[in-house]
UniProtKB/TrEMBL annotation:
Limits of the PAS domain: 19-85
Organism, scientific name: Rhodopila globiformis
CDD domains registered for this protein in UniProt: PAS
Keywords: Chromophore, Photoreceptor protein, Receptor, Sensory transduction
GO term, biological process aspect, one: regulation of DNA-templated transcription
Modifications after synthesis and translation: The 4-hydroxycinnamic acid (p-coumaric acid) chromophore is covalently bound via a thioester linkage.
Keyword Chloroplast carried by entry: no
Name listed for the protein in its UniProt record: Photoactive yellow protein
Residue numbers of S-(4-hydroxycinnamyl)cysteine PTMs: 70
Length: 125
């Protein structure tokens, strides 16, 4: 039986994604990126790779300094850091800017990952 893709706004999105085989996460209709506690990429979905146009190696690289420095700002990383400091990481926000299109609107969902770190889900509008 084929696994149904979880809804982007499901309250348990990260928990559900963590139960899915990587091939299913790769095929989600939105990008999925998992970062460890230090901000290094441990998973970068094929959908995110395709939609963002980023085709360089990602695993074990620092997301905010090596892959997406355009997101290393108060509007993106700052929101994540603020939520982490408050002790909860379950935030949704809009962000403008993508690798190939600085004017593209994104819906961003960030939730805690099991064992530390976080999941970043990106839906292009």
């Amino acid at each position: 039986m084929e696994a149904k893709a979880p809804d982007f706004h499901d309250p348990a999105l990260a928990s559900i994604v963590e139960t899915l085989p990587p091939a299913v996460v790769d095929a989600l209709p939105y990008g999925a990126i998992r970062l460890d506690r230090e901000g290094r990429v441990t998973f970068y979905s094929e959908t995110e790779r395709r939609l963002s146009g980023y085709d360089q190696p990602t695993v074990a690289r620092s997301f905010f300094t090596e892959i997406a420095p355009c997101m290393d700002n108060a509007q993106f990383r700052g929101r994540i850091d603020k939520a982490l400091a408050a002790g909860t990481l379950d935030i949704t926000f809009s962000f403008v800017g993508d690798f190939n299109d600085p004017d593209r609107e994104l819906d961003v969902r960030v939730q805690s990952a099991a064992g530390g770190g976080c999941w970043i889900f990106l839906r292009r509008l």
